[in-house]
Amino acid sequence: MDNKIRVRFAPSPTGPLHIGGLRTALFNYLFAKKNNGDFLVRIEDTDQTRYVPGSEKHILDSLAWCGISPDEGPENEGKHGPYRQSERGLVYEKHISMLISNGGAYYAFDTKEELEKERKLCEKEGKTFIYNASNRLRFKNSLSLSSKKTKELIENQNYVVRFKTPEKREITCYDVLKGKVVVDSLVMDDKVLFKADRTPTYHFANVVDDNKMEISHVIRGEEWLPSLALHWLLYDAFGWKKPKFIHLPLILKPTGKGKLSKRDGDKFGFPVFPIMWKNQGKIIEGYKEKGFLAEATVNFLALLGWNPGTDKEIFKLRELEVEFSLKKLNNSGARFDPDKNVWFNQQHIQLLSESVLAKFLEGELTKENVLYDKKKLPSIVRLIRPRIRLLSEIFSLSFYFFEPPKTYNEKALKKLTDQKTDLFLTKIVALFSDLKVFNSKNIQNTLENSAKDSSLVFGKVLGLIRLAIIGELSGADLFQTIELIGKKNSVKRIKDLASFLK
Ligand code: GLU
Question: Which residues line ligand 1 (CB under 6 A)?
Answer without folding.
Answer: 10-12, 44, 206, 220, 224
